[in-house]
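Dear Dr. H.,

I hope your travels went smoothly. While you were away I took the liberty of generating a structure for the chain from your last submission, since the lab meeting agenda had it listed for discussion. I wanted you to have the full record in hand beforehand rather than looking at slides cold. The sequence, exactly as received, is reproduced here:
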Amino acid sequence: MNDLGPSAGPCVRNRREVLITKELLGTIVSHYAQNENGRHGIVHWARVLENGRRLCSINGARRQVVELFAVFHDSGRVTEKRDPGHGQRGADFALALRGKAFDLDDEDFKLLYDACVRHTDGETMADLTVQTCWDSDRLDLGRVNITPDPAMLCTEAAKEKSMIEWAEARSRENHVPTLIRDEWGIVIP
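The corresponding predicted structure, in token form, is as follows:
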């Protein structure tokens, strides 16, 4: 079994194309007002990224958007508890870094921005890529002892019992994805 689970299919990421660079991640972490090892920090971002990669390999959502969503959606948090506006702050931070720390065309950036802004609104209707972003995050609710509700998931791939069970088990166990070390160069104690 690889980090993406037993049925994730072939490698869903071109290893030569590094979207989330160590520099980009370092900038996000240095900006992050919370404990980077907290409930909404690096390990959560990495599991959201892996959830998103797995969903993209199934539903064809725009991988670059989903990957950037993973690291920006909670980057504007100022508290671990209820934090209205953190999605907007994360989207605005992505806007500030666009063209400097990463590149994304206008259409894809609009999707990223929208996904970040609305990710906590409980919506399920949107572009497939935005839905995939939201599902990637919602599948990691086990970290706060919430089983993802299929009615609150957007895509058929995310609603699959095997997908929910796989993601929830990793979340509840506080699984630390190897991509944190292998791709981001970060060692989690």
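Two observations you may find useful: The CA atoms of residues 125 and 154 lie 7 Å apart. The first helix runs from residue 22 to 31.

With kind regards,
E. W.
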